[in-house]
Request: fold
Amino acid sequence: MVFALLKKDVLIVKKYVLVMLLFAVLIPPFMRWRVPEFTGTLGFILSVIFSVFMLLQYVSIKEYQYPRAAVLLCAAPFSRRAMVLSKYVFCMAAYAMCCMIYGIETLVIPGLGRPDMRLFAVMFCAISAAVGVYLPVQYKFGFDRAKYIFAGLIIFSPMCVPLLMRTVSPRLSLFLAAPRLFYSGIALLGAVFLAVSAFLSVKIYDKADLS
Reply:
């Protein structure tokens, strides 16, 4: 049931997938050129933020334009719980796509770095926290209010992420020297964020008036 709804979301954004693929492909080498001290890490972070949230935004816009679609889905054999969970699966699928693209690029573009599970774990936790805040807010207050969170992420992330990375870079070597178990814990923390957020979103959406 969840995967049928995931397929529905993919079909909704199919016209925009190529654009998002271009973002995911072009941002890492572009940021490597503009900010070479961070290799491809900064580009990967920004490509994840843009790709995940823009695809989610396109889905949300379509659902906002056609509110009766949610009523029809609920009338069909699709539970509200499945409808909510499909959004989380959709976001994580978009994140996995960004990881795969970045991994391939590191193999063919010199100086971009290499696939690093530590980076993937940290970014999984970060995007899980961001999605974990955004989706419950959207279900609680509606797309009209939640879209300001999206706008803030898209506008300020290109400015704030490089500044943050420059701030933490003097202590980055200590962070990278942490054992693998530490990064497993970070990934687990991301999964906890998603689980708690999904639980809240389901509770909120169960009480929503779709009429």
Summary: DSSP finds nine helices and no strands in the chain. The chain has a mean pLDDT of 82.
